[in-house]
Write a structure and sequence with these properties.
alpha+beta, 29% helix
């Protein structure tokens, strides 16, 4: 399991516009990296819409929000359009990123395997992990107030 003070695992995956994104391209700004189980599900929609509605707060704290799920980039594209998300959604279709971050349900339920756990990481400008929250219960939402506190500390 990853912990605070460790270097965040590198990754390269595609966004909703089929463009590759690597963690290293975000060095120089703080990153709120969110893993979520499934696009269009009620809790995931609530979580990401909450982030969408507060995106200016994250931007004011010199941070970039990136959300990852194992959904295809095509379904994520539709999800992003419908919900008007102004942050990056990445497809971890092959589940490599979720596994490297220790945030995957091997058995999720309803016969689904390999679904991302709802998780939140704050990664600083140098790629170091400054906050980790991996939720076992997919019905819970990360502590976004604590995430903002960590971002405020990094901004000082």
């Amino acid at each position: 399991m990853l912990s605070i003070g460790q270097k965040a695992p590198q990754f390269t995956v595609r966004d909703t516009d089929k463009k590759e994104h690597s963690l290293s391209q975000y060095y120089g700004q703080n990153i709120v990296l969110l893993f979520f189980p499934l696009a269009f599900s009620s809790v995931c929609t609530k979580e990401l819409c909450g982030v969408r509605d507060e995106i200016s707060e994250y931007q004011a704290l010199d941070s970039e929000v990136i959300a990852i799920s194992v959904d295809s980039l095509y379904s994520l594209h539709k999800f992003k359009q419908e919900q008007e998300f102004q942050f990056t959604l990445l497809s971890d279709w092959n589940k490599d990123v979720s596994r490297s971050y220790g945030t995957i349900y091997e058995d999720f339920g309803l016969g689904m395997k390999g679904v991302s756990k709802r998780s939140a990481f704050v990664i600083d400008k140098k790629g170091m992990i400054r906050y980790v929250e991996i939720l076992e219960n997919a019905g819970e939402i990360p502590n976004f107030e604590k995430i903002k506190e960590v971002l405020k500390e990094l901004a000082n």
